[in-house]
Design a protein that fits this description.
This protein starts with 25 loop residues before the first helix and ends with a helix. Helix 6 packs across helix 10. The chain contains 19 helices and nine strands. The strands form two sheets. It has a five-stranded mixed β-sheet with strand order 6-5-9-7-8, with no helix packed on it. A four-stranded parallel β-sheet has the order 3-2-1-4, sandwiched between helices. The chain is globular, with a radius of gyration of 22 Å. It is an alpha/beta fold and 431 residues long. The chain has three domains: 214 residues, 3-Layer(aba) Sandwich (Rossmann fold); 78 residues, Ubiquitin-like (UB roll) (Roll), CATH 3.10.20; 87 residues, de novo design (two linked rop proteins), CATH 1.20.1440.
């Protein structure tokens, strides 16, 4: 199967040039219409750009789904303080690999999106915070930034407009918590990667305590398409409240894993069975995580829904960053949840007690159940720990840990009970 696999149901807007090495170069990108969106934007006022992105309904593609244009509109009027745009390319959610591919194949699309976004919020500097493990994408992106400077698309007097916008690539060090926007800002400043208490929000006190907008890679690239083609063009896809196309990363028990771009609202069941080919051996699907390991699981009977923010919320889960993890009936749910919880326990910054203690204790209890020494009382304890972690910390890492625990206990309780054996009283007393 040639890379990249294309399905007829896909709408290739952002992913059109995946697999095309010529699209990586400045010359190749210009031949494909590159930097025309930036040229058009520079002929508009920043307010008009923000309004166009608002009208498109574009929502942030990093997981929260907050309207991009609205986030930009929160930036205060330009005064004496510098403004910053920060691109979050620290793609660290388990199961997510869309931003990595966007950077690998179309680095200039991101540079253009950053320049356009910076102009829209009147920022003089755009920072791209990229995950340290993305060694090849970082090299590709660094070269694209150099080419943009050489061509006059970045730096002083961008495209002869009199506007100065610098672009800096900053490598992280592999901490999941730095994917949270304020933890990222602390890391960017050379501080410990710990989330900040909000308010103040980044629009008021962000990077270096100055007004900052933090946007995802996919969001910024999509915004450039909106400016180039117009809000109405973008709204031809998707639903009323979830407009446009979305990149979905698919992994797990599917015949055709990879990145797919489909309109928001696309039927989830059709996506898994038709676009992704279903399970490799035709085995029944047991569970699907629709938006990365931090969102609640769905059972095979809950897949006949739209792939949009509202439909996922109505089903009791979240679209997240579009990381679809498929598990067939051979999956050990207890083991997989324990692995997720161990990940979050390892990545907790330790700043908040419910997260620092809760993630670790949940991992210990799950390991006990996995090893056959659990009891039904442990399930209640896990639910109580999850409740104590949800909505009670500075960031949502502990909520992310709680989601797979609670959803798996509610939907796959039998899997937990099957792993339990009641020890002899003497052994129980010794424990």
């Amino acid at each position: 199967m040639a890379y990249p696999y294309r399905h007829p149901s896909e709408v290739q807007v952002l992913s059109k040039y995946f697999g095309d090495p010529e699209a990586r170069t400045l010359k190749g990108w210009e031949a494909r219409g590159g930097y025309q969106a930036l040229r058009k934007a520079l002929g508009m006022s920043p307010a008009d750009i923000v309004n166009e992105v608002k009208a498109s309904g574009l929502r942030g593609r990093g997981g929260a789904g907050f309207p991009t244009g609205m986030k930009w509109s929160f930036m205060p009027p330009k005064g004496d303080k510098p403004h910053f745009l920060v691109c979050n390319a620290d793609e660290s959610e388990p199961g997510t690999f869309k931003d990595r591919e966007l950077i690998r194949w179309t680095p200039h699309a991101l540079v253009e999106g950053c320049l356009l976004g910076a102009y829209a919020i009147r920022a003089e500097h755009a920072f791209i915070y990229i995950r340290g493990e993305f060694f090849e994408p970082a090299q590709v992106l660094a070269r694209a930034i150099e080419e943009a400077y050489e061509a006059g698309y970045a730096g002083r007097n961008v495209m002869g407009s009199g506007i100065d916008i610098d672009v800096t690539l900053h490598l992280g060090a592999g901490a999941y918590i730095c994917g949270e926007e304020t933890g990222l800002l602390n890391s960017l400043e050379g501080r410990r990667g710990e989330p900040r208490i909000k308010p103040p929000f980044p629009a008021i006190a962000g990077a270096f305590r100055l007004p900052t907008a933090v946007n995802n890679v996919e969001s910024l690239i999509a915004a450039a398409h909106v400016v180039q083609n117009g809000a109405e063009w973008y709204k031809q896809w998707g639903t009323e409240k979830s407009t446009g196309t979305k990149l979905f990363c698919v992994s797990g028990h599917v015949k055709r894993p990879g990145n797919y771009e489909v309109p928001l609202g696309f039927n989830f069941k059709e996506f898994i069975y038709d676009v992704c080919g279903g399970t490799p051996d035709g085995r029944p699907i047991k569970a699907v995580i629709p938006g990365g390991s931090s969102v609640p699981m769905l059972t095979a009977d809950e897949l006949d829904i739209g792939m949009d923010y509202e439909a996922m919320a109505a089903a009791g889960t979240m679209l997240g960053c579009g990381s679809v993890i498929v598990m067939d009936d051979t999956t050990d749910i207890v083991k997989q949840v324990r692995r997720m919880v161990d990940f979050y326990a390892h990545e907790s910054c330790g700043q908040c007690t419910p997260c620092r203690e809760g993630t670790a204790w949940a991992g210990k209890i799950l390991r006990r159940i996995e090893n056959g020494h659990g009891s039904e009382a442990d399930l209640q304890t896990l639910m109580e720990i999850s409740d104590n972690m949800s909505g009670k910390t500075i960031c949502v890492l502990s909520d992310a840990c709680a989601a797979p625990i609670t959803s798996s206990i509610q939907k796959f309780r039998g899997d937990y009970l099957a792993r339990m054996r009641r020890p002899e009283p003497a052994v129980a007393a010794a424990r």
